[in-house]
Design goal:
Strand content: 15-25%
Number of strands: 4
Helix content: 25-40%
Shape: globular
Strand order of the largest sheet: 1-4-3-2
Length: about 110
Protein backbone atom coordinates (compact mmCIF):
# COMPACT_ATOMS: atom_id res chain seq x y z
CA UNK A 1 0.00 0.00 0.00
CA UNK A 2 1.30 3.44 -0.89
CA UNK A 3 0.60 6.04 1.76
CA UNK A 4 -0.15 9.63 0.86
CA UNK A 5 2.32 12.00 2.52
CA UNK A 6 0.70 14.99 4.21
CA UNK A 7 2.50 17.99 5.70
CA UNK A 8 1.59 20.15 8.66
CA UNK A 9 2.25 23.86 8.10
CA UNK A 10 5.44 23.77 10.15
CA UNK A 11 6.94 21.10 7.87
CA UNK A 12 6.05 23.09 4.76
CA UNK A 13 7.66 26.15 6.33
CA UNK A 14 10.77 24.13 7.24
CA UNK A 15 11.19 23.07 3.61
CA UNK A 16 10.78 26.60 2.26
CA UNK A 17 13.15 28.08 4.84
CA UNK A 18 15.82 25.46 4.16
CA UNK A 19 15.56 25.81 0.38
CA UNK A 20 15.75 29.59 0.71
CA UNK A 21 18.84 29.30 2.93
CA UNK A 22 20.58 26.95 0.48
CA UNK A 23 19.68 29.10 -2.53
CA UNK A 24 21.22 32.12 -0.79
CA UNK A 25 24.25 30.47 0.85
CA UNK A 26 25.03 27.37 -1.23
CA UNK A 27 23.05 27.46 -4.48
CA UNK A 28 24.94 24.47 -5.90
CA UNK A 29 23.61 22.35 -3.01
CA UNK A 30 19.99 23.54 -3.16
CA UNK A 31 18.81 21.23 -5.96
CA UNK A 32 20.65 18.20 -4.54
CA UNK A 33 19.05 18.79 -1.13
CA UNK A 34 15.59 19.08 -2.67
CA UNK A 35 16.12 15.93 -4.76
CA UNK A 36 17.29 14.03 -1.69
CA UNK A 37 14.26 15.22 0.30
CA UNK A 38 11.93 14.02 -2.46
CA UNK A 39 13.67 10.62 -2.51
CA UNK A 40 13.21 10.31 1.27
CA UNK A 41 9.53 11.18 0.93
CA UNK A 42 9.08 8.52 -1.78
CA UNK A 43 10.57 5.93 0.59
CA UNK A 44 8.06 7.01 3.23
CA UNK A 45 5.20 6.37 0.84
CA UNK A 46 6.30 2.79 0.22
CA UNK A 47 7.08 1.48 3.70
CA UNK A 48 7.04 4.11 6.47
CA UNK A 49 7.14 1.60 9.34
CA UNK A 50 10.65 0.50 8.38
CA UNK A 51 12.15 3.74 9.69
CA UNK A 52 13.29 4.05 13.31
CA UNK A 53 11.64 5.94 16.08
CA UNK A 54 12.98 9.45 16.60
CA UNK A 55 14.69 9.92 19.95
CA UNK A 56 12.05 12.54 20.85
CA UNK A 57 9.32 9.88 20.59
CA UNK A 58 9.66 8.91 24.24
CA UNK A 59 8.08 12.23 25.26
CA UNK A 60 5.22 12.15 22.75
CA UNK A 61 1.88 10.34 22.86
CA UNK A 62 2.42 9.07 19.29
CA UNK A 63 5.09 7.05 17.52
CA UNK A 64 7.28 9.76 16.03
CA UNK A 65 9.64 8.31 13.42
CA UNK A 66 12.47 9.78 11.39
CA UNK A 67 14.17 9.31 8.07
CA UNK A 68 17.60 10.85 7.51
CA UNK A 69 18.73 12.45 4.25
CA UNK A 70 21.21 14.97 2.92
CA UNK A 71 22.49 16.65 -0.21
CA UNK A 72 25.59 14.47 -0.29
CA UNK A 73 26.93 11.40 1.49
CA UNK A 74 26.35 12.89 4.93
CA UNK A 75 22.85 12.72 6.33
CA UNK A 76 22.31 16.28 7.50
CA UNK A 77 18.53 16.48 7.89
CA UNK A 78 15.66 14.53 9.40
CA UNK A 79 12.07 14.13 8.27
CA UNK A 80 10.00 13.67 11.43
CA UNK A 81 6.72 11.90 10.80
CA UNK A 82 3.92 9.75 12.17
CA UNK A 83 2.30 6.83 10.37
CA UNK A 84 -1.49 7.06 10.51
CA UNK A 85 -3.83 4.31 9.27
CA UNK A 86 -4.23 5.91 5.83
CA UNK A 87 -1.44 8.49 5.55
CA UNK A 88 2.01 9.57 6.64
CA UNK A 89 1.96 12.94 8.38
CA UNK A 90 5.20 14.94 8.28
CA UNK A 91 5.58 17.21 11.30
CA UNK A 92 8.99 18.75 10.68
CA UNK A 93 12.13 18.79 8.55
CA UNK A 94 15.12 19.55 10.77
CA UNK A 95 18.88 19.71 10.56
CA UNK A 96 20.45 16.99 12.70
CA UNK A 97 22.27 19.66 14.76
CA UNK A 98 19.06 21.47 15.71
CA UNK A 99 17.62 21.09 19.19
CA UNK A 100 15.10 18.31 19.74
CA UNK A 101 11.76 18.67 18.03
CA UNK A 102 8.99 20.06 20.23
CA UNK A 103 5.52 20.02 18.66
CA UNK A 104 4.56 23.09 20.70
CA UNK A 105 7.38 25.26 19.34
CA UNK A 106 6.62 27.33 16.31
Amino acid sequence: MKYPVLFVQRAERNILETLTWYQKNAPEVSQRWHTSLNAALRRLRENPDRFPMAHEAVTFPYRLREVLFGAGRRKTHRVLFVVRPKAVVVYAIRHVAQKDFDPFDD
